[in-house]
Design a protein that fits this description.
heterodimer; A: mainly alpha; two-stranded antiparallel sheet; 2 strands; 1% strand; B: mainly alpha; 3 domains; two-stranded antiparallel ribbon; 23 helices
């Protein structure tokens, strides 16, 4: 009996290997004592690992091959999602500097743990974006989720953070369980864990196969939890609000990129032939998400909650691109994901800065009168809000244009109209933030009486540390500038997204 | 040329962001002046009688999405570009000379003004549908900030209301624009947003209708027209005067312009079908705007509601679907931009003397200010379309067009002319005549306001002497847009195609009407056909097969873009001989 070991393509696996090795290296470097030294050393290694991985991804761009006996598919779509996740993680590392939760006085490894978990989550995202096997699919989604549960609760001295970690753990686990249950049904119905084999087994229709139908529904629900698609979004505002803001930033941007990629691969590749059956279901989810997210955001005073609901709505817009189920739709999705990252990062970075400078935390009062006080931050946050609202001259407009074009082309014009309606509602809250920045005077800090919470320190919840960090300002201005740049000259990003779309083009045969 | 006109203001605005504080306003003013000079040069460099686009620019922009960077100017947009440049120069000069904004945020204010100018010019120059939508939406952003950050009273509520109202329309327009491009691409196999391409490949009437409704919503809100003008009173009360000049003088025109540029050529069937609906809205705007204008006591709102009425006139002029009416509408857009800018500047001047916008607390301003009174009188007489003013010519053309097509609407609309006299004279008398109230002073217009206002009045007088300047240049382009609708309208009931050298013609009632086939001529054709062996037959409402040149001639141009095969058909003269 001969045994053929699967061929291992080290070049293709190199991003995964780099992240895994880097994860260990960061943990080890994190043991260095001394607050300042530890922060610098860990960040250098952490950003270095991410940079190397990004380099490897660019090296592998356009290769398009199956890895590990077909369990992973390394194509431009996966690499695009990985690059977005890496960019988000790299952006979050400077955000975490001087964050009280990680600058621990006692010499324990705050930054080391934070960045190791961050990289671990990026590793999960890299794998889920490539997964084309149900087992890998599930393992990867857990690999990206579990570090996030921990990260949400990582501000150990803040009640809100712990609460958010616990909430995310419980609801995330429900999501994972639902997904796993669904995947089991899909396996049961198709007899294979491999996406290609499932595709062959599914055939034309799933309507008359209850096993498969239940499986798909449960899997969609599970992924909906991860993507915070309504009606599976309830955890989003709470967790976003409670988690340390750098973590929220990463969660909002990177998770969406990776899981949307997985969603596209699951539905378009594994279930591609049954497109007529799942399209209406996803379309309904998209429409519900757009309405619920936008309406939910209307009354929010907490900027993080506002962005949480806005994320639900934006996930709805992106879902429209998935519903289109065409190459153009996938390109639109990838473009929108990149634009979404560019639009959201400055907004969260401004929140991080203002949390440290004002006693208002992430309340909208923290940015009131920002236009006079900190013009650079104000302009960046304004661009970010206008871009999220999809006004022209920003990448957000181009993203919407791209998505609506894909939707109309796929005969889902009504979803295009839904996006337009959602955008109208969204103006009310995005412009409220803009109005606060430019059109109101800064409010005097009024001490609010916080009810004492057992176990939590109220000072830690509200006290501004006053720490400033030039790197954050530089990065957020850069991201805002890129938002405008790709709004005026979108072609480079469009071409990049089109590559990603083409790489999965065979699924739409 | 067009590139420079379009981007010069924004370049000045960006320069102002980094320029020393004291020079900011002059930098932007220089940009606006330069644009104005170029726009005037453009007007003189224009070939009269040419319906095609001139100075066209066509560059690839986002090839994957089929979006091109296409600019061009024709008789419709030419003087709107000049108007935009003129009013912007006026608004910036007015602000700069008066030292606006008072709170010292000069960089922000002048940058936004400059950005708004580029956006407005872009909307008039764009020849790619998506580029048009983009500029159309982009205009809102600076105005949102200008009203919200520099306005007075309930400015934040007002500006939010304005942007929500207007974006409701324009976002639907975005979806509509994408839909029309995609649907056309399914016919042609190539995705393109070029208005030229879209007007050459028409959609089915059903698709045209819903997309037309999306576009019409955007345009009517922008104007604003009667039932959807809710944002107007608040925004007009809150906006700073120079911003209001632009809002009412230029932005309102973009809506009307959009009908001529986009709706008529790309959705001709829908335009023909929904003509009466839009006419109803236009006439309702005239009546409602006029009545409100002579009941309001806030000078800004009198001017605001009078704009509603005037834009009602412009709308019915376009939707008379007659070349005269539409050409009058183009003239009237320019006229109204000029007079409404004059009125708002005078309102600002009066405010400085009385400290109020309330008509009941004004009066007697003519006492020591004969020059101001004279300037205001010229503007007032132009507003009420006094014979001898260009506004009179404009309204005459408009009503002439409407009389030809829908006489009932013309009768009702004509009452608006009378009401205009009432509200314009009321505004003039309440402010300039009567007794000077306590606390108000009457003094002559200052030089710094005079240099802004006098050129505007000079242009108003100049146009009164020679309205042909605009009418001659607009004629050919306007007729082209109207013809598209006329063709499509007839195509519903008639069709024509060449069939081996014999023309198969069919007429419906509308062809009779439009091509002047009266009973006598019909009888003549019928006889000729009967005499021709195998020549065909006349059913009045069915196919006619003939090679008879008389039929061909007397039915000028019933060839429609909808026919199955008209490639070999001879190009026939326009149904509206010029």
């Amino acid at each position: 009996m001969t045994f053929d070991a699967p061929h291992i393509d080290y070049a293709g696996l190199s991003p995964v290997i780099a992240l895994t090795a880097g994860l260990v290296a960061v943990l080890v470097v994190g043991l260095i004592g001394g607050r300042e030294r530890q922060r610098v050393a860990v960040s250098v290694v952490g950003i270095g690992v991410l940079a190397v991985t990004a380099g490897l991804c660019i090296w592998q761009w356009g290769e398009g091959k199956d890895l590990v006996a077909g369990a992973l598919r390394l194509d431009d779509l996966a690499l695009a999602a990985t690059l977005i996740a890496i960019a988000a993680a790299a952006f979050c590392i400077p955000l975490s500097w001087r964050e009280e939760a990680y600058d621990r006085p006692l010499g324990t490894s705050g930054h080391g743990e934070f960045q190791a978990l961050l990289i671990c989550s990026v590793l999960g995202m890299t794998l889920i974006a490539q997964a084309q096997n149900l087992i890998v699919f599930f393992v990867a989604i857990e690999l990206l989720s579990i570090p996030l549960y921990v990260l949400c609760g990582s501000a150990l001295r803040r009640e809100r953070s712990l609460e958010s970690g616990l909430k995310y753990l419980i609801i995330g686990s429900v999501g994972s369980a639902t997904l796993l249950y669904g995947l089991a049904f899909v396996y049961g119905a198709s007899g294979s864990t491999d996406f290609g084999a499932i595709r062959d087994a599914v055939g034309g229709s799933v309507i008359d196969d209850p096993l498969l139908l239940i499986g798909i529904a449960l899997a969609a629900a599970g992924l909906g939890f991860k993507l915070s698609i309504a009606p599976f979004h309830q955890w989003t505002p709470d967790v976003y609000e409670g988690a340390p803001t750098p973590v929220t930033t990463f969660m909002a941007v990177a998770t969406k990129a990776a899981v949307f990629c997985a969603l596209v691969r699951f539905f378009d590749v594994a279930l591609g032939p049954a497109v007529d059956d799942w399209q209406p279901a996803l379309a309904a989810l998209a429409a519900v998400s757009i309405v619920v997210g936008n309406v939910g955001a209307l009354g929010q005073d907490s900027l993080k909650r506002l962005l949480g609901y806005s994320g639900v709505a934006q996930a709805g817009y992106m879902m429209v691109a998935v519903v289109a189920a065409t190459e153009a739709g996938v390109s639109a999705l990838v473009f929108y994901l990149a634009a979404y990252a560019l639009m959201n990062l400055p907004a969260f970075a401004v929140i991080v800065i203002r949390e440290r400078e004002t006693p208002f935390g992430d309340n909208i009062r923290a940015v009131t009168g920002l236009g006079r006080e900190r013009p650079a931050l104000a302009i960046a946050l304004t661009i970010s809000m206008l871009a999220l609202a999809g006004l022209p001259g920003t990448a957000g407009f181009m993203g919407k244009l791209f998505v609506i074009e894909a939707a109309v082309d796929a005969d889902y014009t009504w979803l295009g109209v839904m996006i337009a309606i959602g955008t109208m509602i969204s103006l009310a809250y995005y412009l409220r933030v803009v109005a606060a920045i430019w059109m109101s005077r800064a409010t005097e800090p009024a001490p609010t009486a916080m009810p004492a919470i057992a176990g939590g320190s109220q000072e830690a919840d509200t006290a501004p540390t006053g720490a400033r960090c030039a790197a954050i300002v530089g990065l957020l201005v850069l991201a805002a500038a890129a938002t405008v740049f790709f709004g005026v000259i979108p072609s480079p990003l469009v071409d990049w997204a089109a590559n990603a779309g083409q790489s999965i083009g065979s699924a739409f045969g | 040329m067009l590139n420079v006109i379009l981007w010069l203001p924004l370049a000045a605005g960006v320069l102002a962001l980094v320029a020393p504080r004291a020079t900011v306003r002059w930098t932007v003013l220089a940009g606006a002046l330069g644009t104005l000079v170029l726009a005037v040069v453009l007007a003189f460099d224009f070939t009269v009688g040419d319906a095609a686009l001139q100075h066209a620019v066509d560059e690839s922009w986002i090839p994957d999405l089929g979006v091109r960077y296409q600019l061009g100017v024709d008789g419709i947009s030419l003087f709107l570009v000049v108007l935009t440049a003129l009013l912007w120069e006026g608004a910036v000069a007015f602000s700069a000379l008066r030292g606006y904004p008072e709170d010292g945020r000069v960089r922000l204010y002048y940058f936004l003004l400059a950005l708004a100018e580029t956006a407005a010019l872009g909307a008039f120059l764009a020849q790619d549908l998506l580029l048009f939508v983009l500029f159309f939406d982009l205009m809102l952003v600076p105005f949102f900030f200008l009203i919200g950050a520099f306005g007075n009273g309930e400015r934040i509520v007002a500006t939010t209301k304005m942007i929500v109202y207007t974006l409701v329309g324009s976002l639907l327009m975005l979806v509509g624009a994408i839909a029309v491009a995609i649907l056309v691409s399914q016919q042609t196999g190539e995705l393109s947003f070029s208005m030229q391409t879209l007007s050459e490949n028409l959609l089915s009437t059903g698709n045209q209708t819903w997309i037309f409704c999306f576009f019409a919503a955007a345009f009517l809100v922008k104007m604003p027209a009667f039932p959807i003008h809710g944002w107007m009173p608040d925004a007009y009360r809150a906006a700073p005067i120079p911003v209001l000049v632009l809002l009412s003088g230029v932005l309102a025109k973009v809506g009307a312009y959009g009908f001529l540029r986009v709706a008529l050529p790309i959705f001709p069937d829908a335009t023909a079908d929904l003509q009466e609906l839009v006419l109803v809205i236009g006439v309702a705007s005239i009546l409602y705007g006029s009545v409100m204008a002579f009941t309001q006591n806030d000078t800004r709102l009198v001017a605001g509601y009078s704009s509603v009425a005037q834009l009602g006139f412009i709308t019915i002029g376009i939707f008379s679907l007659r070349p005269e009416g539409a050409n009058g509408a183009v003239l009237q857009m320019v006229n109204h931009g000029l007079v409404v800018a004059g009125i708002f500047l005078i309102i600002a001047v009066l405010w400085a003397r009385t400290g109020t916008d309330d008509l009941r607390r004004m009066g007697g301003q003519a006492l020591r200010a004969p020059v101001l009174a004279a300037l205001f009188l010229v503007v007032t007489l132009a507003t009420l379309a006094m014979p001898g003013s260009a506004n009179f010519i404009g309204e005459f053309y408009i009503l002439n067009g409407v009389f030809q097509s829908k006489i009932v609407f013309a009768f009702v609309a004509a009452t608006g002319v009378a009401m205009a006299a009432f509200y314009a004279l009321r505004l003039y008398q309440r402010t300039m005549h009567n007794r000077l109230p306590e606390g108000a002073t009457s003094r002559e217009i200052s030089l710094r306001d005079g240099v802004v206002l006098a050129p505007l009045v000079a242009v108003i007088v100049g146009l009164a002497l020679y309205p042909g300047l605009i009418l001659d240049r607009g004629e050919a382009s306007v007729a082209g847009k109207i013809e598209a609708v006329a063709m499509a309208d007839c195509a519903d009931e008639s069709f024509a195609r060449s069939d081996g050298g014999r023309y198969v013609l069919a007429f419906g009632a509308c062809a009779d009407d439009r091509y002047g086939i009266n009973d006598e001529l019909e009888e003549q054709i019928r006889n000729r056909l009967d005499d021709t062996p195998g020549g065909g037959r006349w059913t009045g409402y069915g196919p006619v097969v003939t090679t008879d040149p008389l039929v061909e001639l007397s039915t000028r141009g019933a060839f429609s873009p909808h026919s199955d095969d008209n490639s070999s058909a001879p190009s026939l003269p326009s149904p509206f001989p010029r």
